[in-house]
Design brief:
The chain has helices spanning 2-15, 134-139, 166-172, 188-195, 206-211, and strands at 43-45, 59-64, 70-74, 79-83, 111-114, 119-123, 128-133, 141-152, 158-162, 177-185, 198-202, 222-226, 234-242, 247-263, 268-281, 293-298, 304-308, 315-321, 328-331, 349-354, 360-364, 369-373, 379-383, 396-401, 407-411, 416-422. It has 434 residues and is mostly beta strands. It has one domain: 6 Propeller (Neuraminidase), CATH 2.120.10. Strands 8, 9, 10, 12, 13, 14 and 15 form a seven-stranded antiparallel sheet that branches. The chain has a four-stranded antiparallel sheet with strand order 1-26-25-24, with no helix packed on it. The protein has a four-stranded antiparallel sheet with strand order 5-6-7-11. The longest helix has 14 residues, at 2-15. The radius of gyration is 22 Å and the shape is globular.
């Protein structure tokens, strides 16, 4: 009888987790982008330019959420600025303006990304990752779990643990233990902290230092962040610390359950905290290794794409082999075989973004343009030029693509967001340009 109740409770929590609650608002326009075709001519600038009149100061990174909204990490404003596709500022995102940490110090975000659970993750160049959940703020949090009785699936032994203790965190994330019953209460201070931007991962946390035995998690310097587009409970960051151990790497940060939340809709959802999951790829100078990384993106198949300034290749793609107990990542592009691996295309490749068809867009601040490659790594076309091949941008630093194929480019040099679209869009594969 007790085990049956436990199974029903776990199913209830699973079915009504925030993973299942994501819907695309009907007022956000979107359409299938298709793939670029042989009839495409040039990337044309879309007017008006999104500049200081839209609230931008020093935009550093940009990401397009699954509902079509554009999130911009503006370092100069200490803010994540959110826009609809027409440039309007939607309500409900005021908490992302003038960001502060737990000690009331301003946060200067340098990257931002959004997952399917409507978690908005951002970094500031330190060993920390911050989080703000859009869905919780739309619905509201009613109560939180302060204690629970856990039962062991094999033996039927039960034990009670309180929120915030080591045993609470351990049992909550041990699949051999389930929740028999739990106590929900209103702790307004804790609820308010969860509703605001808050710390998700800290490399200085004792557990993360313990799990990351070879490197120095407490000294990590995160330069790039990406969140998978599906239900994976993980995110990836690039670490550019360096140090004696050449701490240039890609880290996987896993989601760990920390609380049960009762939303004002009546749904029960998990609140998560981040924990060091492993070093995905470490230092090297060959294809598929990491050397002074700057940015990272992930496609729908779990392949990782990143840019770097260290020798010898500015742009890499690595893909996971999931046949073993854990993923092993191998280079997806090879020197002399794939155009994108040729360093001559770039002077300083700052950022890379993928569209729905895995076409790649690489922004270069020295060349002041975007170089576009198809999913096979073949060169396709340049973006960022006007009439008579005049360069439009001053210091582009980040790029994103929405479902319509529109390019959004942060230009920190003039505090603006440029937008581009192909002058002709055919539903064919990209054809490399001679």
């Amino acid at each position: 009888m007790i085990r049956g109740y436990y199974i029903q409770l776990i199913l209830f929590l699973f079915l009504f987790s925030c993973t299942e609650r994501f819907t695309i608002p009907s007022d956000i326009g979107s359409q299938d982008s298709g793939e670029f075709g042989a009839g495409d001519t040039v990337f044309l600038e879309i007017k008006p330019l999104w500049n200081s009149s839209y609230g931008f100061n020093q935009p550093e990174e940009i990401s397009v959420a699954q509902d079509g909204r554009i999130f911009v990490a503006d370092k100069g404003n200490n803010s994540i600025i959110v826009l609809d596709q027409d440039g309007d500022r939607p309500v409900g995102f005021e908490s992302l303006i003038s960001l502060k940490d737990e000690e009331a110090n301003f946060i200067s975000p340098i990257d931002v990304d959004i997952d399917k659970k409507m978690n908005v993750f951002f970094i500031d160049g330190s060993q920390k990752i911050f989080n703000w959940n859009q869905y919780w703020n739309e619905v509201g949090i009613n109560k939180i779990s302060l204690s629970a009785t856990f039962v062991h699936a094999e033996t039927g032994v039960d034990t009670t643990a309180n929120y915030g203790t080591d045993i609470w965190f351990s049992l909550l994330n041990d699949m051999d233990w389930g929740i028999l019953e739990h106590e929900m209460a209103t702790d307004q201070v804790l609820i308010d902290s969860l509703m605001q931007p808050h710390l998700f991962y800290d490399g200085r946390d004792e557990m993360n230092v313990y799990l990351d035995t070879y490197y120095q998690s407490d000294s990590s310097q995160f330069t790039g962040l990406t969140a998978p587009a599906d239900d994976e409970n993980m995110i990836f960051v690039t670490d550019n610390y360096g140090g004696q151990n050449n701490q240039y790497r890609i880290i996987q940060v896993d989601f760990k359950r920390s609380l049960i939340l009762e939303l004002k809709s009546g749904d029960l959802v998990w609140a998560y905290t981040g924990q060091f999951g492993g070093t995905v790829k470490g230092f090297g100078t060959g294809a598929g290794t990491v050397n002074q990384p700057l940015s990272i993106d992930v496609d729908y198949q779990g392949n990782l794409y990143y840019t770097q300034v260290g020798n010898y290749f500015p742009v890499h793609m690595i893909y996971p082999n999931l046949s073993g107990d854990f993923a092993v990542y191998t280079s997806g592009f090879q020197p002399e075989a794939d155009d994108i691996m040729d360093p001559l295309w770039f002077t300083n490749a700052l950022d890379i973004a993928l569209d729905n068809n895995r076409n790649m867009y690489v922004v270069d601040d020295s060349n002041r343009d975007i170089t576009v490659f198809n999913s096979y790594g073949d060169y396709f076309k340049k973006a960022g030029y006007g009439q008579d091949s005049l360069q439009l941008m001053v210091e582009p630093c980040a790029v994103a693509v929405d479902q319509r194929g529109i390019l959004y480019v942060c230009d920190r040099g003039n505090g603006s967001i440029y937008r581009y679209q192909l002058s002709n869009n055919l539903d064919e594969d990209i054809k490399p340009e001679d």
